[in-house]
Amino acid sequence: MGRENPAEKALCLLQSRLCDPSFIFRPLSDSSDSNYSKLKFIVSSSVTEACNNSILLLGPRGSGKVAVLELVLKDLLAEYPDMISVIKLSGLVHSDEICAFKEIARQLCVEHQLLFSKMASSDDNSQFMIAMLRECGLAHKTIIFVLDEFDLFAQGKQRLLYSLLDAMQSVTSQAVVIGVSCRMDADQLLEKRVRSRFSHRKLLFLPPSKEDIQRLMEHILSLPEDLSLPQDYVVEYNAKLQNVLTNEKFKEILNRFMNSDSTANHLFRFLFRAVCNMDLGTGFLTLENFEAAILNIQRQPKLECIKDCSILELYILVCMKRLETKEQNSYNFNAVMKEYKSIHDSFQTPDYYAHNVCLRAFEHLLQRELICFTDKKGQNQSLEFHPVKLLVSSYELHQGLKSYRSCPAILHKLMGG
């Protein structure tokens, strides 16, 4: 059997890294100002000082809330293996209080090697939870309750949240409640009796900055020199990677990516696509890999629609964009036709069509949802007089014209002017 291709080994390493949140988020935990450091300090203080605490982790989906929390829990369980017990619930599954108390009782029984009764009532499970909080407190053991989709627990009577936070008022209990939610107003959903028992600590998870993204990419995509890969291959790979990351075209790609969705999860999907595009023949990541990745990850249905437009339909779209550029906020088919005629008169374009042909093209754009009526009023109004607006951004129209094979040069000029 031939020797293993180093590029294949490198590819497996990169893919495994991108599937390992603890590896990905480790460089962002170095700073004392990071959410990792803040969360770890709050929870570890609760463990070592035998006090109760509650905190919310808030941020958009994909911003790394759960990944950072898991990293903190992993590190704390390694530091205090006999002083921590973790109970995890999800609002998507356990928002019903009967189901939630039952699941807490089940996990506590598994954690402490006790016999779980499936026949126990909700009140029995609630009392069991309170008793376990007291017993663990006396044994100097902290129970950490992780409530994912926290806002869903705030629906209805909020009995679970009240019971948990109320039990934590006891001097004998020792617990930490960590809520995770993508709703920034999650704490405002709490009832007065629950809110009065909540600590109101919040950690906000924002999309990573450009500097953080640069650090993350270098951390994830660079190959370590102590790996069982040929030294010359690792050196050449890392040098070529640096050339790509500092390339101006790559920075443009990164800006496009950040303008659409700059959350951490979206970044990792983007990098995974790029890594999977790597040519195993050369064994290096190239600019083309990242270009293909962003085209793949960013769905652009409007661009596809523009590619299927006729020349006349392109003229209509450009005319509408020009009217918007002139700050003409309200316009209709007749106004678009005036702009179309003025272009023809100024440039003597060969592409000039009859009124009824233009009207059919206009209707086609409405059907394709590249344009739409500004309101539903006056549905009986004649099509020529009904106000319309564009559903295509300037960037999408620019890109659509660029990728259109037989696009008249005048349209590029008109869009650039």
UniProtKB/TrEMBL annotation:
UniProt domain ATPase AAA-type core: residue ranges: 55-201
Q: Which GO terms describe its molecular function?
A: ATP binding; ATP hydrolysis activity; DNA replication origin binding
The entry's protein name is Origin of replication complex subunit 4
Q: What is the taxonomic lineage of the source species? A: Eukaryota, Viridiplantae, Streptophyta, Embryophyta, Tracheophyta
* Residue ranges constituting the Origin recognition complex subunit 4 C-terminal domain according to the UniProt record: 216-400
The superkingdom listed in its UniProt entry is Eukaryota
Q: GO BP, one example?
A: DNA replication initiation
* Role description: Component of the origin recognition complex (ORC) that binds origins of replication. DNA-binding is ATP-dependent. The specific DNA sequences that define origins of replication have not been identified yet. ORC is required to assemble the pre-replication complex necessary to initiate DNA replication.
Keywords of the record: ATP-binding, DNA replication, DNA-binding, Nucleotide-binding, Nucleus
